[in-house]
């Protein structure tokens, strides 16, 4: 649904050059919630502004819903009109809401419909339906100053939906909100994604946001995407920083002569039977030291740290059994750092 290839953005100001995006290849599939995470200055906002062409990329292409927006940008008035139409199909939600304080809630939502030249009756019908969708049917006549932060963001989301977008872009939409309000806004985005089949690209610097709503994620560092994939794919990638942050496990060996391993489930096997089968088949007691598991589409994904009696050499066969179930096994050495799979 959204594809960027070789996307590059260099800002030039007062003789200085800043490379904010350095060849970003991103692929967001239709109907998914895709999170881009990274530290301040990593280039996240530049990415989202280039995706909707608010900012002209220095190089590379942006394709949204099959249309190459970069090809339309800056190519005469006819292409300009097409670009505007394409952009009206991309909704944008901002960190600081960007509502007009002099307009009522309903008039704020109607704004993009005015720009699209819709009639008064149609605008009002649409705005009220959208306010109902975001749970603010009773606030149509209120002014932004009379709303809480979470309510303002709901208005921002309703406004973003006014042009019937297929894609919603969100830049830190929850970072000005408290944790509980954040949860309710993320839930709203999730519901809209499911109900309307909306593809959502959201930018955040909070891992919790990625964890609670995203199907896929990318990690940005210094203008580059250093990791990306579905949550299951990330888990299946040895050494993935995103997977480690999404599914943290702790726990130390309870004594000498014990083997501690991290078992990663990435969608093919389920936790419960595997652990009990292992215990039954080899007649060993297994302790679970820590676990971070989520259920996605009926399958369990995540990590579990378990302890088996005996040294590593004595557990080669049971660990082989786990690998045969399609699980990734990382041995946690006595000194702490992980011994990666394959490096025996
Ligand atoms: N309009 C601009 N002119 C010049 N440099 C800019 C401009 N916008 C961003 N930059 C620079 O580009 C780099 C990436 O900025 P960007 O805003 O994309 O980061 P970010 O990941 O969104 O950070 P944050 O989490 O703080 O919002 C930074 O070094 C920033 O200073
Ligand atoms: Mg930013």
From TrEMBL:
GO terms for cellular component: plasma membrane. GO terms for molecular function: ATP binding; ATP hydrolysis activity. Signal peptide: none annotated. One of its GO terms (biological process) is amino acid transport. Pfam families: ABC_tran, NIL. Keywords: Amino-acid transport, ATP-binding, Cell membrane, Membrane, Nucleotide-binding, Translocase, Transport. Belongs to the ABC transporter superfamily. Homodimer. Forms a membrane-associated complex with FtsX. This is Methionine import ATP-binding protein MetN. It comes from Streptomyces naganishii JCM 4654. The gene is metN.
């Amino acid at each position: 649904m959204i594809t960027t290839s070789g996307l590059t953005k260099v800002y030039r100001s007062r003789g200085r050059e800043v490379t904010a995006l350095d060849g970003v290849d991103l692929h967001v599939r239709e109907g998914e919630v895709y999170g881009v995470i990274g530290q301040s200055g990593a280039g996240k906002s530049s990415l989202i502004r280039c995706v909707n062409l608010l900012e002209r990329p220095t190089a590379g292409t942006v394709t949204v819903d099959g249309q190459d927006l970069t090809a339309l940008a800056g190519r005469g008035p006819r292409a300009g009109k097409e670009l505007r139409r394409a952009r009206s199909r991309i909704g944008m939600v901002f960190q600081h809401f960007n509502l007009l304080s002099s307009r009522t809630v309903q008039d704020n939502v109607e704004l993009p419909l005015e720009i699209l030249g819709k009639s008064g009756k149609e605008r009002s019908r649409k705005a009220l339906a959208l306010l109902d969708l975001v749970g603010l049917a009773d606030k149509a006549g209120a002014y932004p100053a009379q709303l809480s932060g979470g309510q303002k963001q709901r208005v921002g989301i309703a406004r973003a939906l006014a042009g019937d977008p297929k894609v919603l872009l969100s830049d830190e939409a929850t970072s000005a909100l408290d944790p509980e309000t954040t949860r309710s806004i993320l839930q709203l985005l999730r519901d809209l994604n499911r109900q309307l089949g909306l593809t959502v690209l959201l930018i955040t610097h909070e891992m919790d946001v990625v964890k609670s709503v995203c199907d896929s994620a990318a990690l940005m560092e210094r203008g580059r995407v250093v990791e990306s994939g579905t949550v299951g794919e990330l888990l299946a990638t040895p050494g993935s920083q995103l997977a480690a942050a999404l599914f943290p496990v702790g726990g130390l060996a309870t004594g000498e002569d014990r083997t501690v391993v991290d078992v990663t489930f990435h969608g093919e096997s389920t936790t419960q039977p595997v652990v009990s089968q292992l215990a039954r088949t080899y007649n060993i007691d297994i302790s679970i030291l820590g676990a971070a598991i989520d259920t996605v589409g009926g399958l369990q994904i995540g990590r579990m740290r378990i302890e088996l009696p005996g040294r590593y050499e004595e557990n080669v066969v049971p660990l082989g059994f786990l690998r045969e179930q399609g699980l990734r096994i990382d041995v946690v050495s006595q000194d702490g750092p992980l011994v990666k799979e394959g490096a025996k």
